[in-house]
Specification:
By secondary structure, the chain is an alpha+beta fold. The protein has one domain (3-124): RutC-like (60s Ribosomal Protein L30, Chain: A). Helix content is 21%, strand content 29%. It has two helices and six strands; from the N terminus they run βββαβαββ. It has a six-stranded mixed β-sheet, with helices on one face. The two termini are 17 Å apart.
């Protein structure tokens, strides 16, 4: 199976040695997207604003792979504070529509650049 890296020009740059997204056959794996702008600066102080930016970066990576949010079948959300769950859900519901992707949400001790939210996804072509 062939695989290729995808990196959206209008999304945050990778903060380490990884591909922002990888296309492998009919699957697209989007690495965890954090709330950074194209210059690598954190966007937003609160979880809601940070979730919106992380989701914008995620959608940009999907678009670079030729897909949109409707192709996403699974997401994982990482939060530094589970009390932000409702605020992140509101931002998430503005991007994804029924049937919603399967999802896991976990609280973690810390995220890169000390952001509050990171979101990864798996999408399917076709």
């Amino acid at each position: 199976m062939e695989k290729r890296s995808v990196a959206a020009a209008d999304a945050a740059p990778a903060v380490g040695p990884y591909s922002p997204a990888v296309v492998a056959g009919d699957l697209v794996f989007v690495s965890g997207q954090v709330p950074l702008d194209r210059q690598g600066q954190v966007v937003g102080d609160g979880a809601a604003d940070q979730a919106r930016q992380a989701l914008a970066n995620l959608v940009a990576q999907l678009r670079a792979a030729g897909l949109g949010p409707e192709a996403v079948v699974k997401t994982t959300i990482f939060l530094t504070d589970m009390d932000d769950f409702a605020a992140v859900n509101e931002a998430y519901a503005a991007v994804f529509t029924p049937p919603y992707p399967a999802r896991s949400t976990v609280q973690v001790a810390r995220l890169p650049k000390d952001v509050k939210v990171e979101i990864e996804a798996v999408a399917v072509r076709g």
